[in-house]
Amino acid sequence: MNTTTAGYKLIKKIKDGKFDVENLHQYNLLIQIGVRDFQVSVVDSASNQVLLLEDYVLASVKTYRELQTMLASLFEDHHLLMAGFWKTVRISIKNNKFSLVPSSLFVKEAALDYLKLNSKVNPETEEILYYQHIKSDAICVFAMSKVLVEWLRALYPNTSVGFIHQSSALIDGAINFAKSNKKDSLYLYIDRFKLHIITLKKGKLEYYNQFTIKQFNEYIRYIMLVIKGLNRTQKNSDVVMWGYIGKQSPHYNEFYKFIKNISFGDRPDYLKFGFVFDEVQEHHFFDLYSMHLCS
Prior knowledge:
Blueprint: E1 8-15, E2 27-33, E3 37-44, E4 49-58, H1 64-77, E5 88-93, E6 98-101, H2 111-116, E7 126-132, E8 139-145, H3 146-155, E9 160-165, H4 166-178, E10 185-191, E11 194-201, E12 204-212, H5 217-229, E13 238-243, H6 250-258, E14 262-264, E15 272-273, H7 286-290
Parallel strand pairs: 2-5, 4-15, 5-9, 10-13, 13-14
Antiparallel strand pairs: 1-4, 2-3, 3-4, 6-8, 7-8, 10-11, 11-12
């Protein structure tokens, strides 16, 4: 069918020849949902090999009900997403309705109050969820449309379904990367119209925030604000970057004008990738891959 007419368009698909539909029971399904994009990955839990990656752009919608209707069309036309025999299904939501709370201060009954500090939340239409970071002293409280949550749970009634916020995948991914990166780095994730910034101290989360980007110069402005706020210097700050930016692109060259100690991050070392993934730049899809760390 014409997927553009349906409201979504597949822009990238990689499928490893080792993918075997008979082994869905040992595969982990990773799903990431944004307002204007959608990603899917499949990881073999036995070998930690990534077997499938798909990236979609979505048409603009005004309500979560419209988003769910569009995703339902995508799922129904997909050869795998309606299957119910996955080992686990992990779902990440990309939005700005989240709050990071130190675990020592977290009270489950106050989850809504934490969210109200930085975002508008309607508990009648949005479900309040939370994820505890095992490797950092933080709990991410976030909101997700009840329409989406209930629909996704109904799709996989016999499978372990976990919900996380995009920020949690990025934080856990950065913590893992820092094990082999001995520098005191600023970690960036360049998303579609969003900038995510993460810093760590002694392997624990020090700072995380996301910024909506409308013009390219806002990337530099927010990065400099964070560097200054953390009492770092532009000259000496080491920056590691992932996301939707090319290694030879004009945007990267612009970054380099302001930040000399900048480099691209690698793919996660806990996952394996066949040669078919060589066409995907290693710093792409870091948030999607990092979902594998979130139990």
